[in-house]
Design goal:
single chain; alpha/beta; D-Maltodextrin-Binding Protein, domain 2; 2 domains; ten-stranded mixed sheet; 39% helix; globular
Length: 340
């Protein structure tokens, strides 16, 4: 039994004083507190679990966190409480979890950029591999190449034909330099031999408003963001960035089908803990998520928000993160985004 946790009523006065001193020193950082033990993992969770979302409420990551928190709370008998901690494109919330105790009571609902893009750009205070324990990739959300009234085209081929003779004259919406939609669009333009201006927006609604208003020409948006406009005449969907067509828009081809074989970019949303979290806890959470994903009501809620449900294993999720780090390292160079 760890020394600091061994204090009891039958402890001699001198021993209690010694232990109190050690406890104070531990809190001051002079004596390391014991890491979670196997016994501690077996009794987990004994209190509510905090799920940090590194963005504000209402976004895709926040919605996924709240959908998954409910079945986890029901299955494990403790509340999974979502805490929004936005800032620095998600890096602030991710850093808080990276440096939290690895006891299973502080988790992170992250998206791809926090693990595979921001660290590559030198914009984080954590290591995306060493400082996190992958638990489960909840699901993926592809992008869809969308145009407005300022660019009257109906296919990717027509898009390329219209844009190519006008280098730097047309513009697209980017949700911040180095964001996933910015890098994905930069890769597509590079593959197509096109040159467009990236207009940076702080949020999707502003970019969508300008697209509909004809102030910009294209927007590589998340499926959930533009889905409400599917039956309107305000926007046209040219292609999706996933490997296969999305159920919501079966008539919209993939970019691979539209002449760009092998092109794929999807935003994943997954649950992680701090590095060093006991494997017993990691596996237990992952197992409950896998069971929840099989529930038709959970799948329907995720799908209605443009998320393709997945719920894979910790090992598979770790492999996805490693592959994405390598892929997006090259993408950052293609996009010409400077490291800071």
């Amino acid at each position: 039994m760890p020394l600091i946790s061994a204090m009891g009523r039958d402890c001699p006065p001198t021993r209690r004083a010694c232990l109190r001193t050690l406890g104070l020193l531990a809190l001051m950082g002079c004596v390391p507190l014991a890491r979670p033990t196997a016994a501690g993992a077996q009794s987990w969770p004994a209190r509510p679990v905090k799920v940090v979302v590194p963005f504000g409420a209402g976004g895709n990551t926040d919605i996924v966190a709240r959908i998954i928190a409910q079945p986890l709370s029901e299955a494990l008998g403790q509340a999974f409480v979502v805490e929004n901690r936005p800032g620095a494109a998600g890096a602030l919330g991710a850093e808080a979890v990276a440096h939290a105790p690895p006891d299973g009571y502080t988790l992170l609902m992250a998206s791809l950029p926090q693990l595979a893009i921001l660290p590559v750009m030198g914009r984080t205070g954590y290591d995306p591999v060493k400082d996190f324990a992958p638990i489960s990739n909840i699901g993926t959300n592809p992008f869809i190449l969308t145009v407005g009234p300022a660019l009257p085209v109906k296919t990717v081929a027509e898009f390329v034909e219209q844009v190519r003779p006008q280098p730097k004259e047309l513009a697209y919406a980017a949700m911040g330099a180095g964001s996933l939609n910015h890098l994905t669009m930069a890769l597509f333009l590079h593959r197509a031999g096109l040159d467009m201006n990236a207009v940076q927006y702080k949020g999707g609604p502003a970019g969508l408003t300008d697209l509909i208003g004809g102030h910009i020409h294209a927007y590589l948006a998340s499926v959930s963001h533009v889905a409400p406009y599917a039956n309107s005449n305000e926007l046209r969907f040219l292609a999706v960035t996933s490997e296969s067509r999305v159920p919501q828009f079966p008539d919209v081809p993939t970019l691979a089908e539209a002449g760009f074989p092998g092109f794929r970019s999807v935003l994943w949303t997954g649950l992680l803990g701090p590095g060093g979290m006991p494997k017993e806890i990691v596996d237990r959470i992952a197992g409950e998520i896998a069971r929840a994903i099989k529930d038709p009501s959970v799948r329907e809620r995720l799908a209605s928000n443009g998320v393709d449900p997945l719920g894979d294993t910790p090992e598979s999720f770790a492999a996805t993160i490693a592959a994405d780090i390598a892929f997006w390292t090259d993408a950052v160079k293609v996009a010409g985004v400077e490291e800071k």
